[in-house]
């Protein structure tokens, strides 16, 4: 067979006249399918309140149509003033969280001062951009970043796209497979001037609604006692709610839903 420099022999061989067929057999191998990889985290919600911002995340991780884990944690303290929630490929997401935590700590040690809240949000976007090749192979991670901005003296929150683009949310936010359902509940119930307890109740209501329609969201698992992780950031710093306190709110919500299956028409309960 005659050969030409720079062209594999198969490109000059006889056969199908279809270029699409040629690409299928000789072209670049296909990437990893979008559902490849390990367990995927699901729904994260956040909302502002009178003194800061609250984030909550359900505990379920899925692999396709299979529930992989019932007690995955998806909400973490990034530092003493900010919180990060994760959805997407669970293993990669947790590594991103660890890297972000070390990044903030390293900056503080080297520079002798903390990054501004805006700087933290930008740095998280840069880490996501560095992760883009893996995201294009199906190992996508989407964070929700929130915390207390000392400069603005207010709670703030950002969502991101896989390319690292960041978008500030001014009232509430949701991401993950159940985000559309949770966001609908937040639109109806959220009051930015409410207190912390009321806002936590609203977030748990939104997770209940998400679990009602999204099989990948666990909602309020009273049977196993696995409660959503709830964390708040305010001028006093980041605090994780005790699981027993979360359960008490969850039990009130489930009791109220027994009386009104569709949930509250207005207000937290």
UniProtKB/TrEMBL annotation:
GO CC terms of this entry: cytoplasm; proteasome core complex
Gene3D superfamilies per UniProt: Glutamine Phosphoribosylpyrophosphate, subunit 1, domain 1
GO BP terms, alphabetized: proteasomal protein catabolic process
Keyword check for Transmembrane: no
GO molecular function: threonine-type endopeptidase activity
Catalytic activity, as annotated: Cleavage of peptide bonds with very broad specificity
InterPro entries xrefs: Ntn_hydrolases_N, Proteasome_sua/b, Proteasome_suB-type, PSB_actinobac
Keyword Hydrolase: yes
Keywords: Autocatalytic cleavage, Cytoplasm, Hydrolase, Protease, Proteasome, Threonine protease, Zymogen
Top EC category: hydrolase
EC number: 3.4.25.1
Pfam family, one: Proteasome
NCBIfam families: 20S_bact_beta
Protein name: Proteasome subunit beta
Source organism of the structure: Tessaracoccus oleiagri
